[in-house]
Amino acid sequence: MSERIPTVDTFEPLHPKKVKAKSSDNLIHTRSFTGLYRTLRVAGAALLFLLFFGTVWLDWGGRQAVLWDLAESKFHIFGATFWPQDFILLSALLIICAFGLFAITVFAGRVWCGYTCPQSSFTWLFMWCEKVTEGERNQRIKLQAAPWSLNKLARRSAKHTLWLGISVLTGLTFVGYFTPIRPLAAELLTWQMGGVSLFWVLFFTAATYINAGWLREAVCMHMCPYARFQSVMFDKDTLTIAYDSARGERRGPRKRDVRPAEVGLGDCVDCQLCVQVCPTGIDIRDGLQMECIGCAACIDACDSIMDKMGYARGLVSYTSEHQLQGGKTRLLRPRLIGYSAVLLVMIAALVVALVERPMVSLDVTKDRGMFRENAQGLIENIYSLKVINKTQQRQDYRVELMEAEGFQLQGKTKLSLAPGEIVDVPVSVALLADTPASSSQTLRFKVTDVDEPWIYKEADSRFVAPLNR
């Protein structure tokens, strides 16, 4: 007897009986599958998890390699240390990420959501835990409907134990990027964690457990703003996941060795696997929908059925509206070129800003007093110089006035700062002339690295003096 592909009963091929994505418990129980896109997604998620959970444990020069030390207002990223004065660079990085997201959306739709979004990645991980502890889709549906028993209690307990374990590890890791991870982990294991750290660990534990374990697709469908405005960036050449209705209709079951044309059907055998594997529970055959996250699970499922039937793959595929209409997808188009050009310019500007970033900081604050007369009878102003060594080595600096003829800098002008050290240096500036050219003049202070004179920073302030003495 010829092998048949599992299908649902239909009354008429034109009006197939749909399998609901949600079971009677109003939950989406996805079916396991294999395929190219699943392999890519798993590999990408594994790399991201490795970076997230692993980077926080790396050391660099005797400290944690990546640490946003809020208490010290220092942001360590391997060999570089950033300060609040460098916040503009973080803003630029966020803008670059936004334009990168725009560009990839114009090109390939919601591929970010399907492959690299943390919500999607953790949801797939939690779904895997569900499969390991409660079985395949049909087994989970039966277990959900079954009355409570020792078997059900044991399986549910195992699932939630895995979920909570992953959630605690996620919360600890996330907080570990802001508080040194090693003492933080030791405090957690010995139940000695401080109130603030404990609050944030529990907060992110709960966020992971609830979002990935319980809310799942609701986050993508109702809470994520990206789903709402993505259509604005789509055009007829954007690669999206689509069902080829011209090839697939009319849909209906048939034996494996029966050609579609012989029974007046299209290539779709109405097996409903595309619905059963979808994490948001949609039927891709109904067209592009806001709930589709572009994970390509339906492509893998459909291609597996096409292989069994001996049909060509691609009934569900990454394609464009133009291609579905018989045309050709244009990869290069004004909107995509524009986004890409802006993205490249901003990346280049960020690289230049990082390379040219001054490794010494200088802030000048004038004393609240207007001016005073010193022991030599000269008018002088008092200033406070705040100097920061942004390098990873001890540095010697020289403080001087630039283009300040007629003025004399008095105070400590030679400094030696440890890596990351901040010092406040009081200095005074005396007016050598009897009569100033103006009641308020601009002074430019400069701090220069003694050994590396190309490392310097300048800052302006005002000198105030009376016109008549």
TrEMBL record:
<dbReference type="GO" id="GO:0046872">
    <property type="term" value="F:metal ion binding"/>
</dbReference>
<feature type="transmembrane region" description="Helical">
    <location>
        <begin position="336"/>
        <end position="355"/>
    </location>
</feature>
<feature type="transmembrane region" description="Helical">
    <location>
        <begin position="191"/>
        <end position="212"/>
    </location>
</feature>
<dbReference type="InterPro" id="IPR009051">
    <property type="entry name" value="Helical_ferredxn"/>
</dbReference>
<dbReference type="Pfam" id="PF13746">
    <property type="entry name" value="Fer4_18"/>
</dbReference>
<keyword id="KW-1133">Transmembrane helix</keyword>
<dbReference type="InterPro" id="IPR051684">
    <property type="entry name" value="Electron_Trans/Redox"/>
</dbReference>
<dbReference type="InterPro" id="IPR017896">
    <property type="entry name" value="4Fe4S_Fe-S-bd"/>
</dbReference>
<dbReference type="Pfam" id="PF12801">
    <property type="entry name" value="Fer4_5"/>
</dbReference>
<keyword id="KW-0472">Membrane</keyword>
<feature type="domain" description="4Fe-4S ferredoxin-type">
    <location>
        <begin position="259"/>
        <end position="287"/>
    </location>
</feature>
<dbReference type="Pfam" id="PF11614">
    <property type="entry name" value="FixG_C"/>
</dbReference>
<keyword id="KW-0411">Iron-sulfur</keyword>
<dbReference type="InterPro" id="IPR032879">
    <property type="entry name" value="FixG_C"/>
</dbReference>
<keyword id="KW-0249">Electron transport</keyword>
<keyword id="KW-0812">Transmembrane</keyword>
<keyword id="KW-0479">Metal-binding</keyword>
<dbReference type="InterPro" id="IPR014116">
    <property type="entry name" value="Cyt_c_oxidase_cbb3_FixG"/>
</dbReference>
<dbReference type="InterPro" id="IPR013783">
    <property type="entry name" value="Ig-like_fold"/>
</dbReference>
<feature type="transmembrane region" description="Helical">
    <location>
        <begin position="39"/>
        <end position="58"/>
    </location>
</feature>
<feature type="transmembrane region" description="Helical">
    <location>
        <begin position="87"/>
        <end position="108"/>
    </location>
</feature>
<keyword id="KW-0408">Iron</keyword>
<dbReference type="GO" id="GO:0051539">
    <property type="term" value="F:4 iron, 4 sulfur cluster binding"/>
</dbReference>
<protein>
    <submittedName>
        <fullName>Cytochrome c oxidase accessory protein CcoG</fullName>
    </submittedName>
</protein>
<keyword id="KW-0004">4Fe-4S</keyword>
<dbReference type="GO" id="GO:0005886">
    <property type="term" value="C:plasma membrane"/>
</dbReference>
<dbReference type="InterPro" id="IPR017900">
    <property type="entry name" value="4Fe4S_Fe_S_CS"/>
</dbReference>
<keyword id="KW-0813">Transport</keyword>
<feature type="transmembrane region" description="Helical">
    <location>
        <begin position="161"/>
        <end position="179"/>
    </location>
</feature>
